[in-house]
Write a structure and sequence with these properties.
By secondary structure, this protein is α+β, with helices and mostly antiparallel strands. Helices cover 18% and strands 37% of the residues. It has helices at residues 20-31, 99-108, 130-135, 174-184, 210-214, 237-244, and strands at 8-14, 36-38, 47-54, 69-77, 79-81, 90-93, 111-115, 124-125, 128-129, 145-158, 161-168, 189-199, 202-203, 208-209, 232-234, 249-250, 257-262, 265-273, 276-282. The two termini are 18 Å apart.
Amino acid sequence: MEPRTTDGLLLVDKPAGVTSHDVVAAARRAFGESRIGHAGTLDPFATGLLILLLGRGTRLIPYLDAEPKVYDATVRFGAETDTDDVTGTITREAPLPADVDVDAALATMVGDLEQLPPSYSAKQVDGVRAYAAARRGRPLDLAPVTVRVHAWTVRARRGAELDLTVICGGGTYVRALARDLGRAAGSAAHLTALRRKRAGRFDVAGAATIADLREGRARPRPLTEAVPQLPAQPLDAAEVRLVANGRAVPARVAGALAALTDAAGLVAIAARQDEQWQPRVVLRDA
């Protein structure tokens, strides 16, 4: 007997105190599906949107329209930590900055920025994870990377804390942004709360909770919802058979890529070759 598979898209609202791996493990147990991929993890203290793809849906990860990311964050001024967030040990303290200095610093932190990843991060050097080396007391010499910040919005000021919404590109460490904001404002800072609200077209508002997963209430969404940005071309039965065997079919919609579908859902992602669609990712058995 072939193992049962569940192909689909699942949005999960991760709570604080669990890892992204814990959420994936809960989804595996809930659906009896070992093949589960994700589009970006969250730190354990953070909450919010995780995008999971189940079964053959894992093949769609390169095609997700999941940028930019939108986060609600809280920055606390006056101290840096070794993790750049509230879970770490204080390494430096400084006087609180004036609001005008914070606003001036925020104005400089838009666009393409050179960001030094946190010492406690999943970055690797010669196969060694940065967080593993940091825990041993031998932090890695990490190289800066280019990240993009599209916009900041100040939502509230509460003494030493600042509530912000940041829109940024993938690969951006928001806790490193908090650290750098403190320095740019002539102070010190770290992140105390983080919530991912959106990733491209995907919103946490419709996400399942971890309780939904554990109690059997979560339901995967059709794979067509994973690629809503692609034009869809319905196929007839003969075309489905061709595509399932990796064969091209006539193109009847515009675009460089398309989602080929039938009444049962997504059949394939295809690339245009002249006036035909050549399958690139096939999700239907031949």
